[in-house]
Amino acid sequence: MEGSDSEDGTEEESEDDEEVEMETDADEKLGEGHGQDEADEVKDEREQTGGEVKEERDEGKGKERSLQEAVQTMTDKEVVDLFLREDKNLKELLFLRSLDPSRYLEVTMKVKAERLKTPEEREREELALQESKRREEEAAAAAIASMSREARRKRGMELR
Predict the structure, then answer these.
(1) Which residues are CB-contacts of 79 (< 8 A; sequence separation ≥ 6)?
(2) Which stretches does the entry tag as region Disordered (predicted)?
(3) pTM for this prediction
């Protein structure tokens, strides 16, 4: 609307806008040296930030490698427990598919099955596991007691 005469004074406003633009251009020309320094600082910060991001990526790769090495040495049950406890994404196991496809399939199926269980089912399984351990311990204690009785009998016979 420049150059048009209107009653609301739009021509005056556009002239004011042009003056502001000229002042801004003049300020930029005067402070060009300072602007370059600031631009260099921003560039340096970006490079540093990029470097930090790169370092974080490298650390992530290192963690990924250490997870892969750990998974290779762990039993399937330990891997399942790890993925359930830390709520890890199953995509982190994809490396295992190329190394041992059957183990990959088995572990991922176990993790998925465990994630689908209700808390009541987990509690029942835990109680059953504790009960079976208790029975095994009792059986082991009884076996030890039986062996010690046998040993005492033999020693008694030897002493006579």
Answers:
(1) 71, 93, 107, 111
(2) 1-70, 118-160
(3) 0.40
